[in-house]
Amino acid sequence: MKEGLRIVFLDLETTGLDVFRDRIVEIGMIVLFWDGWNFRISKIFTSLVNPEMPIPQSATKIHGITNAMVENVPRLSDIQDKIKNTVSDLPLSGYNIINYDIPLLKNEFARIGDLCPFPSSEIIDPYRIFKRREPGKHDLKSAFRFYASIESRIAHRAIYDCIGAIRVFKGQFLLYDEFNIAEDPFQAMVEASWDVA
């Protein structure tokens, strides 16, 4: 991979699983920088988000974010420019972002009258690579266990799930020969992300 490559990892915590109706309650983004030898963190952005609707108890049980926690935090419209500046037309990654995070965030941006800044083609989804390569469960905890060989202690807070996705991404990058021997391993991972729904 070319030295200087940057990639943004994204995770959302939300009021539910419906990408059309549910709202964001937390966003986490980490920008990784490839220095020619290793990936290094160059930027972190995380924020609770006021969803402007009640958070169902079923969602709070998963991520631990309560209505009281988001009562006095920014709305999505208050931080939309920070999100855009962090993405900055960079390639995007995150666990199951193609099916969930990207469509939900696009719908949220449309709701506030703005265009989502995400690229249409340079997306690496470690979930899709895991699903294509390995049998069994494909949730983030299972992926973390498989590729990082340790148990994930914290899940379903945005920044920690970004870190989990980074560990999975690095494990896949090192484990699968087609990425190691590809002329452009980054592009090979992008293409692999779109191979399975």
UniProtKB/TrEMBL annotation:
Residue ranges of the Exonuclease domain? 6-180
Gene3D superfamilies for the chain: Ribonuclease H-like superfamily/Ribonuclease H (3.30.420.10)
UniProt keywords (A-Z) are: Exonuclease, Hydrolase, Nuclease
Q: What Gene Ontology molecular function terms does this protein carry?
A: exonuclease activity
Name this protein carries in UniProt: 3'-5' exonuclease
A matching Pfam family: RNase_T
Organism listed in the record? Leptospira ainlahdjerensis
Q: Does the keyword Hydrolase apply?
A: yes
Q: Which InterPro entries match?
A: Ribonucl_H (IPR013520), RNaseH-like_sf (IPR012337), RNaseH_sf (IPR036397)
